[in-house]
Amino acid sequence: MVDFEINERFDVIFCVFDSIDHVRRFSDWKKVFVRVRLHLSAGGCFIFDINTQRKLDRHIAEPPWVHRFGRNLLIIDVTSLANRGSNWNIKVFEHVAHTRYVLHEEDIIEVSFPLQKIVTALRGHFANVRVVDPNSRRPTAKSERLFFIARNR
Q1: What is the topology classification, in CATH, of domain 56-110?
Q2: Which of 29, 68, 70, 73 is the most buried (most CB within 10 A)?
Q3: What are the extents of the domains in the chain?
Q4: Using an 8 Å Cβ cutoff, are 55 and 146 in contact?
Q5: Does residue 19 sit in helix, strand or coil?
Q6: Do residues 35 and 2 touch, judged by C-beta distance below 8 A?
Q7: How confident is the model over 126-144, as pLDDT tens digits?
């Protein structure tokens, strides 16, 4: 995501499901913005969404999620990391026999950055930047998910 090169331009580039939150350094977010701008047609749009720090902090404060599906079990435990990051420890206990389970485990890091920092970086590369909170008339300190629409020059 940080250094992709495709010999093509697009009218719209989507980065959904808070994928950019997995890019850990803000300097790399800025590189994503540069790569996207270079791959957008004139007037094209870059649309992406984030989990805000508020949402990550809420998940960190919550107990682990436990979800049964079929004879399998999913446990997600979100914990705090240095520099306001979060670690999503995901465990799936896959039922394979009568009393036998296989554990599949993954740690997924997510970070978020302040709204104004993101908007300022986007405005350095895009002509028009709009931020949408799907649950409110406009983004606030209580926003947990934000969508960004940035139009290419």
Answers
A1: N-terminal domain of TfIIb (2.20.25)
A2: 29
A3: 10-52+113-151, 56-110
A4: no
A5: helix
A6: yes
A7: 999 999 999 998 999 999 9
Q: How confident is the model at residue 82 (pLDDT cuts 50, 70, 90)?
A: confident
Answer yes or no: are the C-beta atoms of 142 and 112 closer than 8 Å. Answer: no
Rounded Cα distance between 7 and 98, Å, is: 52
For the cut 90, the answer to whether the pLDDT of residue 5 exceeds it is: yes
> Other C-beta atoms within 10 Å of 136: how many?
12
Domain at 10-52+113-151, CATH class: alpha beta
Question: Residue 123: CB partners within 8 Å, gap ≥ 6?
Answer: 129
**Residue appearing with tokens 């436990």:** 66
d(CA 88, CA 25): 17
Place of tokens 């682990």: 64
Tokens 């465990």 found at = 91
Same CATH fold, 56-110 and 10-52+113-151? Answer: no
- In terms of DSSP bridges, do strands 40-51 and 10-15 run parallel, antiparallel, or are they unpaired? parallel
Q: Could you identify the residue written with the tokens 């959904």?
A: 16
Edge to edge, the sheet with strand 10-15 lists 10-15, 40-51, 145-151, 128-132
